[in-house]
Fold these 2 entries.
Entry 1:
Amino acid sequence: MIKNEFDWYIQFNKMQNLNDMIGKQLECVDAERLAHTRQKKIRSKKRKDTFVAAKRRHNLCASRGVGGKHTEEGFMKKGYTHGSFHENPYNHYAKHGLKNKAIKLFVDMDGTLATWKLAASMEELLQKNYFRDLPPYQSVVEAIRLIINCKPEVDVYVLSAYMPENETSVDEKGEWLNEFLPEIDNEHRIFVPCGCSKVSFVETLFDCHVDDSFVLLDDYSINLHEWERGNGRGIKLRNGVNGTTGTWVGHEVTRFEAPEHIYRHICDIMLPND
């Protein structure tokens, strides 16, 4: 009970202080909620920007179509199509490629299937038939052939970078495969412009995220590190030229083993419970 004006003033101050405390607590709650909401938006935007950036990079590097759009001519020229062009190539892979097999093995060419000349000059790389005439690493080629023939649950793709400056490089790589590994048909040959991330390219092309069912066999550690950061599994091919910096500490095989040993080693990594 308020007896006089002084008591009323004290009660008023108490109420005012209580209101201030409640207001500050509410401000803290609102600030936390706002910060949480902002972080969610930032994370969502980063995921979206990553996908959009990958798609833009693919659009820029891949077909060179007018206005950044994919064209039949562009994809045919760069080796991305597989027969008819009745549907978007993304949809083709999403519908007919990755969904069919439990494990997807992506195999690099230069330095993995084919000999890579470490000291090759730019002039050599641009010469006609440079890629066509690269000698095969026969032990690796035979090991991949064994996987194709003996492991039907594994879908094997070639995933190889090409030089846009060399206008015949994709055709030459196709001719090389026709001779040394024809078991990999056109639908399983993917050529990525040099400088484009292989994992981003595959995720955009197939319209899905790489996971541990995606295995990359490559001689280049940067490709393998990017692949594993995307939750795929990497296997390094030691070819006698690479592996000098020691940056890769994951799974690896060497081309100097017999094909049967390489085959078993890769299968043990891909199919540990087999």
Entry 2:
Amino acid sequence: MIRSGIIAQKMGMTRVFDDAGQHVPVTVLKVDNCQVVAQRTEDRDGYTALQLGVGKAKVKRVGKAMRGHFAKAEVEPKRKLVEFRVSADNLIDVGAEITAEHFIAGQKVDVAATSIGKGFAGAMKRHNFSGLRASHGVSVSHRSLGSTGNSQDPGRVFKGKKMAGHMGAERVTTQNLVVVSTDVDRGVILVRGAVPGSKGAYVEITDAVKAKLPEGVPFPGATRQAEAAPSEAAPAEEAPAEEVVAEAEAAAVEAPVEAEAPSEATADDAEKKE
């Protein structure tokens, strides 16, 4: 029973207070119009997955092929697309929007994103090396790497040796983060602890692979159709209609009063003529 994940935008960190009054550091993740763009089926593609899209992209910056792809799904051009592997019975209809209720409070999730780039870093910062001695014969090379291999045999440095180099700007997955709360109206998910990525970056939230799903998790997911928006606005349109009826009734009451005034005026004119 593999459910789909969702794409959210990292807004930053804050804190909330639990029932015991203890403050909990949380990361605010915003889910804004995360829609299903396409389905991948076993018969056609050889695997089962959902392609989700989030964010609004300018049409002029979208290629012709992708415009047709979005037009087929009847969704607006998306800024970011991600595929999530799902089981065949957890496929969601194309065009459906996945809401923040997809996860529940207390559930553990895995969050993946591209980490913040740190540039070229030394071995002590990049790999947590201890460095050389602060004194006793060491000069200049206190933060150096140290020996990188043997001498004549094998006479080379093994591949994968931990050395100085480019740090960060790579895909990182943080596991077993607890969902503190969700807000469907605002489209916000609060996750306890830090999440990889910079502010404004898109992150992928999935069910934790090392934790059991709690009871009450929606299957195949918490969704709403795009056509539901006009129906929700219908009750708001009834109020102006009631006001029109009230104004019509008030006008009907005032009409006889205005009609009596001219009749009195004609009676006075008749008396003057006599």
